[in-house]
Amino acid sequence: MRHWLFHLGGLGLIPLGLLDNSPIPLPGIMDVATILFSARHQQLWLYYALMATVGSVLGGFLSYRLARKGGKAALERRFSPRKVDKVCKIFERWGFAAIAIPALLPPPIPMVPFLLAAGALQYPVRKFLLALTLGRISRYMLLAYLAALYGRQIIAFIAAHGHPVVVAILLLLVATAAGLYYFWGGRKRRKRA
């Protein structure tokens, strides 16, 4: 897949974006591809950011349309009722921001539930597209720009010290996830008590 993606270049980010925002997402793949392309060809960072945005918005719109046809019942078949209620409450309260903010944030922040909730709750198409585009273009412009500036140095560092760096990052991610789990779990337990 990597060979195919590098062969297509920036255009490969469009089908990748369709996959990334589908009901079966590939978390982080668009970020990594955008960073790698921008680090390899620094002068094309804006092009890669725009192609990543186009692919991501098209994929998000496809998920939105599928959920719009299925309605809230489609959400309840895919997710637990508790998760559906939680996402719908967030979406009903924040609307535009409930799409734009997850679109801007990196994994592990889930995007697909909000795309599906927007469709199921019949959120207006123009507002949806605007929120998704603003979030995604901000994210990919920042990633591509930073990768163009510092990407080669970071890739060289990881190539030279790959194993320790990867292990350190994985440990940091696990520690962060565990901390968040205990923080949110403890908060929920205190509310119940």
Can you describe this structure?
- The chain is an all-alpha fold and 193 residues long.
- It has one domain.
- The protein contains eight helices and no strands.
- It is globular, with a radius of gyration of 18 Å.
- The mean pLDDT is 81.
What would a concise description of this structure say?
With 193 residues, the protein is mostly helical.
Write the layout of secondary structure elements.
Layout: H1 2-8, H2 13-20, H3 29-40, H4 45-78, H5 81-94, H6 96-104, H7 112-120, H8 125-192
For the sheet with most strands, the description reads: none
Overall structural class, as computed from helix and strand content, comes to: mainly alpha
Order of helices and strands: HHHHHHHH
Mean pLDDT: 81
Tally of helical runs:
8
Cα(first) to Cα(last) distance is: 50 Å
Note the beta-strand portion.
under 5%
Specify the helix fraction band. over 70%
- Return the domain count: 1
Rg (C-alpha, Å) = 18 Å
Uncertain regions spanning at least 5 consecutive residues: none
| Total number of strands | 0
Overall outline: globular
